[in-house]
Amino acid sequence: MTHTILPRAFYDQSTLDLAKALLGKLLVHETSEGICSGYIVETEAYRGPDDQAAHSYNNLRTKRTEVMFGENGHCYAHVMHTHCLINVVSGGVDRPEGVLIRALEPVDGIDLMYKRREKAKREKDLTSGPGKLTKALNITKADYGKSFFQPPLYIAEGKEVSQISMGPRIGIDNSGEAKDYPWRFWETGNPYVSR
DNA sequence: TGTTCGATGTCCT
DNA sequence: GGACATCGAACAC
């Protein structure tokens, strides 16, 4: 199994374009237990300084958001309730934007994903949510700041996506008018989308 | 040092 | 459709 890892330069595009471009790409994590991967089928864009729903709204720079002020293509991992969520950093240095990866279509290491996600009954339950996919691939806060263009954690060429749908983002009801921005993207009709 | 609150998932009705 | 578990980060003292 050889994958073509997307180069560093792939991440040098606008955050909205990147959110769409990431659909169909393959997210891979190699661990001592084995390799797990899945096609990205759902993303959300968070546009830093001017986006009330973003953690980096108003250029808020803290220990948590620090990595978003750095280089594109790195990993912004943070803990939400008891789960870990991951973003791909974009926007360029000193512009804190990112793309949240919300759902995957499982490809490799499906048995291992079941083992890590005991509560999942069907394949559809393995990675159909931002907290689910990190558990299935064993991505944690320890991956904060790593890049997505070199093993063991990387994004590679995947499949063609026939049609993309867009709509409001999920779970940000307290974000003023930003809650209505149509910055969530998913592959139309894909059963692994979170909702 | 204490309090508050989520970019969620799961179970229950 | 609703309750709740449970953790770290942010912020107020």
TrEMBL record:
Keywords: DNA damage, DNA repair, Hydrolase. It is an enzyme of class 3 (hydrolase). Pfam families: Pur_DNA_glyco. The keyword Iron-sulfur does not apply. GO terms for molecular function: alkylbase DNA N-glycosylase activity; DNA binding. One of its GO terms (biological process) is base-excision repair. Its EC number is 3.2.2.-. It comes from the Bacteria. This is Putative 3-methyladenine DNA glycosylase.
